[in-house]
Model the fold of this input.
Amino acid sequence: MSAPRTTSHWAAVIVAALGLLLSLGLELVHYRAFALPTASSFCSVGEKLDCASVALSRYSVLGGVPVPLWGVAGFLALLGAAWLRSRWLLPLAAAASLASLGFLGLELFAIGAVCLLCEGVHVLSLALLVIAWRQRELATDRYGDRDSLLLVFGPALGLLAALLLFQRPYWGVFGWKGDLPFAQGKTVEGYPWIGAEHPSVVVHEFTDYSCPHCRAASTHLLRVLAERPKQLRLVRRQFARLLCPKGVATSCQMVRVAYCAQEQGKFWLADRWLFEHGTGRSQVDLGEAARDIGLDAERLRACVVRDDTYERAEADARLARRKLLPGTPYYIVGEKLVGPAELLRHLEQR
Done:
């Protein structure tokens, strides 16, 4: 006959179940940030308390699986261990707590924003560790127990395998490695475009590489382009929100990197790399950019400090301001200025 369940046993089960629910909520936030970039988030309450900024960071996907779904798999295992009163509860809770501390460090020092739902998950992980430690002598199985291993780890491993095999990567369309799947070129004014060679719709997209919402909106628009490659053309326009004075190393640095990549015929690969590595930052590592994108590093370094490169960045920013753009991302379709929500409605009607 099994031992009766104590208050601490039920506490572990409840905390693990709450962690599972919060992780599912985080996955919803992650999906909405990329698939519905114009939607507001209930847990985005400022620049530093912004779940969307965390969801849109390059740290939100690990090994091809969104981090919230790693959390779902982890709490599934924790829930199984808590229900079975397994010895695996303590090491799993310790691993979850270490992971939580690591992700908190990324939020504070790399992303520059904190996600309230994430902090809820972190607190639950630490609480579960405390509970597991207190009931560590009451486990009913052994570490080598095959049935316990299957029940604790089976559902989590099955979920991760299914995600890796069948999940459609809603967070990206094409990356900065390999060849482009669409035609590309530049307008008579020199702006880079991608998409239809003979378009029925041309969208001029004004973005800032440091803007996380620009990254999401850009990804979403590229996904629309993938559905209409013969009708839609996207023209990239730069609107750095900060001034671009000559000689300042951080002045519109990522915009200048994009221009210099265009000179080497790799603008759109650089565009994706800059959104991936520059979101929330003022500059990126030039050596890393050259290596990853496949640019001539010396030519890149020489280009980004040229006077004409600074002048081009400042000229594009001044032009965007003269058009009275309220911010980024923003768009011009024909002669009309439209925001993200209006653009999506416009494209749905075409």
User: Anything to note?
Assistant: The beta strands are 61-62, 65-66, 183-186, 192-195, 201-207, 232-238, 330-333, 336-338. The domain at 183-349 is CATH 3.40.30.10 (Glutaredoxin). The longest strand covers residues 201-207.
